Amino acid sequence: MPVLLITDVFLWAMLLAVLVYAWRVRRNEPLRRTWALVFRRPVAAVSAVELGFFVCVALLDSVHYRPALPGAAGQALTHAAEPVSLLDQLLAPLVQARERSYSEPLAITAFRKQSVEQDGQVLRDYPRLRFGGAHLQDASMHSADLWQRTALGLGLGALASLVLIGLGLGWAAWRSQQPMAVVSRRWLRGQTVWPWRALALSLSVLLLACGWALVLSQHYHVLGTDRTGNSVLVMALKSIRTALVIGSLTTLVVLPLAMLLGVLAGYLRGWVDEAVQYLYTLLASIPDVLLIAASVLMLQVFIDKNQAFFATGLERADARLFFLCLLLGITSFTGLCRLVRGETLKLRELEYIQSARAFGVSTPRILRLHIVPNLMHLVLINTVMQFSNFVLAEAVLSYVGVGVDPKTASFGVMINTARSELAATPVVWWTLSTAFVFMLLLVLSANLLADAVRDAFDPRMRLGKVPRREAAGQEASA
Prior knowledge:
CATH architecture of the largest domain: Orthogonal Bundle
Order of helices and strands: EHHHEEEEHHEEHHHHHHHHHHHHHHH
Largest sheet: 3 strands, antiparallel
Strand order of the largest sheet: 1-2-5
Radius of gyration: 27 Å
Shape: globular
Helix content: 55-70%
CATH superfamily of the largest domain: MetI-like
Number of strands: 7
Strand content: under 5%
Number of helices: 20
Distance between the termini: 46 Å
């Protein structure tokens, strides 16, 4: 039975909006050339591949349903109480392979000594794990088995990457009507208009990592387990959706507020400008953390008193996540609003705007046809750059206990859990390290792509930023 969460609707709606915008870019020659400048940079292309992987994981985790429960013949069909996602279904073997407590990555024994009975005596030892390395009859086979499975996983990833590269080179040779050897040589030397070599290398690294994790996760916990014995890899993969929801949905809240108030204040001026300035100055004077903390606590009290409004615990956690996005958007629109207001003040004094007003063009038409289109490059650049800030903000808020629901998988919850683990002896290091690496890849990819977008869409930065391969490889269409 399908289950539709609030954040699921917004995620799929934003994906549809991105597809519509891509279709519009394809039909608009200036926009197509500008975006071509973005993705002809190897760093931007590699960042897009990494972000595409994170988006795919988040979308798999955004299709929820209640699985049917087995029942006796003749009885009405029943469904599970809590919904699951497609990602949960794919990760079901890892979710079911729970341990008693902590275990290190790729370990076969528990992380801490436990009381075990051996030959009628109670001893303190490191017991074997229930899942990790359970197929091994002897612990001495552990190292050899790891190397064999690592080689198998890397081999599968390398085979998949070679197949993709071969198909890509064959398609390029067919389209350009050139010999395969010529196309391959240009690809190896990087003498192509598009950075296909960088894309191939990034996809190869991604496939190698996925192949290694896929093979080893069948018999080991690749990134270890937490205090309750759950796989850290599962927690990290499910935290990707939370990070993307926070970053994209909060941006969706910021944009209309900042655009509407900034454009009206900059163009109309007078009492409208003073009112908007007073509003965002007042909001900027209130500590964001205190305002968000008070609002989240009030929401939690409301949810606890009105549990009948939500059918499942997942819906309650999703409502808190959605409300947190609204709060972050309301408290974070002031910077973009100031930027839009200042740019509008400059645009309204230009000659073509003055001419339009002299000819009697209405204010809404001037704003729609002249002001807003000339602000979109600033809005787009600021939007991409703020995405990573919102992802980091969720981690900070969850760390102090006023972020997402504690039962929701997020990087902030993982970091908050690792706070006590770092003080333990011996140190449980893999939870924090996993959250750090995943957040680093996500935020770094977004920042590098934002730099490329800024250089392409800002006219002052565009000069001198055209990649050399565009001029050197105009004749190569591969």
